[in-house]
Amino acid sequence: MQTRKPIVAGQFYPGDRDSCIAEINECLREAEPAKSLPETIVAGIVPHAGWTFSGSLAAMVFSAIKQRYEKVDTFIIFGAVHRYYGSSPAVYDKGSWSTPLGEIAIDEELADAVLKTDAAVSDSSAHQDEHSIEVQVPFIQHLFADAKILPILTQPNKQSISLGEAVGGIVKQQKKTIICIGSTDLTHYGPGYGFNPQGIGESGIKWAKNVNDKAFINLAIEMKAQQILTEAMEKQNACGPGAAAAAITAAKALGKTKGILLAHTHSNEVMERKFNQPGKESVGYAAIVY
Hints:
The protein is an alpha/beta fold. The protein has helices spanning about 15-30, 50-70, 110-115, 135-145, 160-175, 200-220, 225-235, 240-255, 265-275; strands at about 5, 45, 75-80, 90, 95-100, 100-105, 120, 150-155, 180-185, 190, 260-265, 280-290. A hairpin with a 2-residue loop joins strand 5 (about 95-100) and strand 6 (about 100-105).
């Protein structure tokens, strides 16, 4: 049986079990309680930076799901692509994933159902060097001990919409509890990212959050998946627009009409708050549920 080994344990999050659990609990403590949640949650959008920066926002989404469901059978995680160049969504369809918290099984039955729709291809190797899904998995292991996962890397193209429609249709037919997660960070701003149209420094970073990020967030809340794909390419306000579009489209197929923003911040705010060290770059993060 194939098992994917972690590639960013010890970098994006702790590499040993005890430290990993301690930091998850710290992220959960930092996560602000949601003021209002939908009666049911079928999907969420989470960031995928190192836990120091975005872990509390990811924790908000998984904590919100835990408030609604003590048990989740499977999390379908649509991942942003940083090193996968295939055009079709890539499914890790067999075996398990390993993290410092142990192994978590792939929902192979659900993977087969997705692959039969021709909306994605089986390609476990595409996942070997990608972190956008991996950093979510320990949260799932900690909060939902018996859950399985279905990792799918999702390019920012129209196939992400087809994938979301297919997945939504499949989930609708299932008797088990399945949640879809889209993994994306928002605007990467500053000279180090080669993107600073509003100048370098505080004013540019504020624009990245209050204008550029907000454009993505508004589209995500209104569930306009196709526009997210188009505007992300034009405005550079998401690194995983395909993952977000797939999750949103699946949620729409499952009857959702609007998302709820739980929190929005960026790495420079975190650096100032935690370390009193503002910088010239920032990466935006949002936590949204459907």
